[in-house]
Structures are given as structure tokens and as C-alpha cells.
Amino acid sequence: MKKIILSSLLLTGLIQAKEIVKEDLHACKVCHGRKFEKKALGKSKKVSEMSYSEIKSALVGYKKRTYGGNLKGIMERQVYNLKSIKEASKEIYSINHELDGSEF
Which residue intervals of the chain are DSSP H helices? Predict the structure, then answer.
């Protein structure tokens, strides 16, 4: 019985975490496009063409203020509010790529 309850709590937590990440990404999609297919403000890379590790590295760099070009200031403020960079990176990557687990 304890295992069932713990499993249910864990699953509920994972579902809620995924929904939080999706909410976090709404602001990203305004500039990068629904499928991250656009160059934000005509200047950034197309995120849809980046690998999982490139996405994660960029987000970590923005958070640490060690990455970015012309849009660095905007991105630093956006990434600051992300709850989980790892989960956000997975969600962004999975929009345009099939996940098989080998990327992570």
C-alpha cells in the first residue's frame, strides 16, 4: 500500500513539474515561435536546429551570465525565472525531436 501511495505522489509530482515547465516556456515561444523555429527578433539561432546539449549549455550560460550576444540581457531575465533548466531543455528539444534517452 505504501508503494502505491508513494508511486502516485511521485507521478503526480512529475506531471505537475512538466506543466510548470510548459508554463515557463510560454514566454520563450513569443519570440522563438511555437516550435522554436524562428530566430528571436531576427537575431538568435533557431533553437529548433540546436542539439539538447547546446540548448542546455545556452540556458545555463544565460543563467550564469556567461553566454549570449545581442539578446543576452533579455535572455538572462527570461532564464532567471525557469524552475528547472534541465527539464526546460528537455521540453524545448522534444518539441522538434524524438527522445530516446541517449541525449541526456
Answer: 2-32, 52-64, 72-80, 85-96
